[in-house]
Amino acid sequence: MLQSLSIITITFNNPNELLNTYNSLESFRKAGGQHIIVNGGTTIKHLISDDCLLLEESDKGIYDALNKGIKLVQTPYLMLIHSGDILVAALKVLEEQLVTMNEKQLDILLNDCTIEFGTGKRLMSSINWKPWMFKLGAQPPHPPTIYKSAFVANIKYDINHPVIADFDYLERIFRLKPLYDKGKQTLVFMSAGGATSSGFKSFFKVSREFLSLKGNLRGALIFITRPIIKFIQMI
Fold first, then answer.
1. Which residues contact 214 (CB under 8 A, 6 or more apart)?
2. Would you tell me how many other CB atoms lie within 10 Å of the CB of residue 34?
3. pLDDT attached to residue 196
4. Which of 88, 94, 162, 179 is most buried, with most CB under 10 Å away?
5. How far is it, in rounded angstroms, from Cα 56 to Cα 208?
6. CA–CA separation, 57 vs 215, rounded Å?
7. Please, which residues bridge with residue 145 across strands?
């Protein structure tokens, strides 16, 4: 069943973090899963073997690289695990998730992840998330989400929103009324320092992009509600 899943990893000049991710996916690759690496920086060919699909070319940032990776997918399902993040789920768990998606004909399967938080880690859960929460600026955790490739093939990340394109991407997906469920499994450990989770500086950058994307009234509402919803998600 793992042969039906592609995992996309994007990287840019962070070889140590990439190797952490690459090594965590070794058993996945050996079991027949497809690992796609999109590298926009200095070559990493000497760091990895030929057990993955490697695309090396310049890009316009994180979301342009993700669009390139998704375009390369030839399997029924896909996930996005960024450089530095770790697959922590057992292969049996992934297989069960894919069986569930196939049997229920799901377009999206939401899951949970842990995220580096200060000196420890916290669980970021999709359990309490509902689609109406997009109105408040909250999306489900995206790294542990499994997508049906055919459903998202023509949906691209908008590179004009370099910080919140992941929110915009998921919101547009859910406007199409996908058949989705919650797998209730912790699949990924996220290292800290992402574009939307790097302290007060990133918080205000995110808020400015929401103002640009949603207008002043909606953007102001999200400025207030988003931190509250994210706190609820972190259990």
1. 222
2. 21
3. 47
4. 94
5. 32
6. 35
7. none
Q: What is the largest CA-CA distance in the chain?
A: 51
Residues with Cβ within 8 Å of 6's Cβ and at least 6 positions away in sequence, in order, are: 33, 34, 35, 36, 72, 73, 74, 75, 77, 78, 79, 149
Q: What SS3 state is found at 207? A: helix
Residue 234: pLDDT above 90?
no
Tokens 């919140």 correspond to 164
Give percent of the chain above pLDDT 90: 66
Location of structure tokens 């997508």: 147
- Secondary structure of 94-158 in HEC code, one letter for each residue: HHHHHHHHHHHCCCEEEEEEEEEECCEEEEECCCCCCHHHHHHCCCCCCCCCEEEHHHHCCCCCC
Please give the domain boundaries of the chain with CATH numbers for all domains. 2-121+139-193 (3.90.550.10)
Give bridge partners of residue 47 from the DSSP assignment: none
- In the block, tokens 């070559």 appear at 43
What's the whole-number average pLDDT of the chain? Answer: 87
> For residue 42, what pLDDT is reported?
95
Residue 71, SS3 per DSSP: helix
Q: Which of 126, 138, 146, 140 lies closest to 206 in space, CA to CA?
A: 138
The 10 Å Cβ neighbour count of residue 22 is 22
Helices 62-72 and 165-175: crossing angle, nearest 10°?
Answer: 40
Query: How many other β-carbons are positioned within 10 Å of the β-carbon of residue 83?
Result: 23
Q: What single-letter amino acid sits at 78?
A: L
